């Protein structure tokens, strides 16, 4: 394994932590210097290997390292940190929702990872690598640090805490831009948590300065090991669909661009080794409030494209609220490579409104899903891609629901209460609003209370009247005896 610079193409060893090229400061990608040997193994043999590993009980092979040869062959299995990440379920949407959308699709529920987000895939890789360096004596102790909109900090703190006392963690969050649920996670894992004014991009600049100046381990997607671990998402989709991806499309939120980078890279590796014979369509989604990648690809002529960071506005898809994604150079390189290997355009970007994100998230969850706001963003992106002809009714789509719905329940509360701040540009649809109803019949003189239960006739009267009120509100019909 080695780091390759995307700017000057120089190669660096993995014996020490690197995030950017020491020479030109461009971002790096990890590559397997013996990848050609993997290409000598027939694709069907790889199928048998991965399918066989499904049956094994060895912890290291139960997670993302089921695909060890593709994710981190330099990392010995006894150094792998496994907390239950990976192999999240792909759940097919119910018939009603698929009919409403217009095609067959699945949610891949990455909120069912240990810290309740897809970030665990990359952290398992990054912290396994750090564990390897510690065991080899290349490091003695580490302070792991990251900037975050919530999910990265939760994941980094969780995995770092597993490697105490040699690894400690600190996270930087934009002040009041992280949900209470997400804030509680790094605090609960014992990380040092620092809130600073501004947005994620401001936090990222501080973390970059710290990693350039002090001996710390940066755990954002600028870290190439993070990208490597997140490639497992592509491998799992390939295996879940029995390696037949000709009619498949994958929709992912872009955010800091690390995830779409990993998804492309993973499918490219499986395609080059013959594990899959067709590259699926990939559709990256951005909100109108944070859309620099979408804007970049609006220019059809690659020679005229210029990347321009944007000033983000508030978004319910908080993890995607990034105006200057650090992985943009990786995206540009891999999009070109992906389309070239496919022989036609297979990577697309679409833009969605904040209104569509919330409406589709709530619609999805009313049909048996646990999609977060980013899952709503991908479903909204699917609808736009279908409208624009990027997708058609014959496609089978996998949507990335990056985190658990409970992490962003505060936005649902604002929607249901009708109290969304104006800057989000969201007007709740009354058909999607919901709220609890207090059932307290006015004719009842006595009510139960904690520590003060009712008994006898008072209790019987309470049960009867409350039941009658609920039956009236639900318009229930009495049972008839035959």
Explain this structure to me?
This protein is α/β, with parallel strands linked by helices. The protein has three domains: 53-117 and 226-424, Rossmann fold; 120-223, Rossmann fold (3-Layer(aba) Sandwich), CATH 3.40.50.1100; 437-482, no CATH class. Helices cover 39% and strands 13% of the residues. It is built from 18 helices and 13 strands. The protein has helices spanning 35-39, 43-53, 59-62, 68-71, 95-101, 119-136, 151-162, 180-188, 200-213, 224-230, 232-240, 258-272, 292-296, 328-342, 354-365, 373-387, 409-417, 456-474, and strands at residues 2-5, 11-12, 28-31, 90-92, 104-109, 142-147, 167-174, 192-196, 217-218, 248-253, 281-287, 347-352, 396-401. A six-stranded mixed β-sheet has the order 4-5-13-10-11-12, with helices on both faces. The protein has a four-stranded parallel β-sheet with strand order 8-7-6-9. A three-stranded antiparallel β-sheet has the order 2-1-3. β6, α7 (151-162) and β7 (167-174) form a beta-alpha-beta unit. α6 (119-136) packs parallel to α7. The longest helix is centred in the last third of the chain and has 19 residues, at 456-474. The chain is globular and about 80 Å long. It starts with a strand and ends in an 8-residue tail after the last helix. The relative contact order is 0.11. The mean pLDDT is 94.
